[in-house]
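Subject: sequence -> structure tokens, single chain

Hey, anyone have a minute? Need the predicted structure for the following. Not urgent.
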Amino acid sequence: RRLEKRIYIPLPNYESRKELIRINLKSVE
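Reply:
Had a minute. Here:
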């Protein structure tokens, strides 16, 4: 098990994480 994908997101800011999730959702659409 590797956490490379998780490590590549060193954003302790909740808002920053929300933005990343938004980008992911946009890619899915």
